[in-house]
Amino acid sequence: MATRIDDTPYTMRREALATYFDSTAKQAWIDLTSDAKVSGIRATVRAGRKSMRELLVSWLPSDLRRTRILDAGCGTGALAIDAACRGADVTAVDVAGGLVEVARERATGFTGHGKVRWRAGDMLDPSHGTFAHVVAMDSLIHYSPEDLVDAVEGLSERTTRSILFTFAPHTKLLGAMHTVGKAFPKSDRSPAIVPVSETELRARLGRLSDWKIGRSERISSGFYTSQALELVRRG
Is residue 212 part of a domain? Predict the structure, then answer.
């Protein structure tokens, strides 16, 4: 019997993430992405995410006027606003509707040259349209290497210039955390971050014949470790 599309590993993981970030983790995520006081551990994560966001935005053209950008997994919206400040026409999508509402509220009064359309839903939904650039910051780190590359391939079909995304690089620490996390009942743990070998990831991305791998850079800040990778359309 063929697998229904709603039962695919990507879809089931996506729905688990939506539930987690709209319930258990919502307030923690709001605090993490604001100026609220947080623990020392969360402060290192906040600093790491800020550095990663700045890195990814720096990989985009400085002038984004009349340029369509997809913020795939926008969370509470900081990267989308950064891109809009450069003049971009941003579609900001997140599977967690509650976080999208927070992003929309935080953007009230935005007076930059660009604009942001906030949407709750699947970042892979083709109804979002075609974009010059796609940025997926820490929104693919919960997927297996196979599902991650499938998602990037889906995004590539409606992207004309570049795809910037992050993955959790396979280190001894992240590998150990992932293994230990599997020992807990599913109801007692957050959706796991899946460490990915960069060598394996590059090999899998080789099937995207119209794309080439560009820049790669890792950000490490205390308990935050993430690696950015750039894909550029050939020709």
Answer: yes
Distance CA 6, CA 4 (A): 5
pLDDT in tens, 89-142: 999 999 999 999 999 999 998 888 899 999 999 999 999 999 999 999 999 999
The domain that holds 150 is classified in CATH as 3.40.50.150
Q: What is the 3-state secondary structure (H, E, C) of 23-57?
A: CCCHHHHHHHCCCCCCCHHHHHHHHHHHHHHHHHH
Cα separations in angstroms, 111 against 57, 76, 105, 115, 118: 19, 18, 14, 9, 16
CA distance 227 to 104: 27
Residue 192 lies in a domain: no
The model's pTM = 0.89
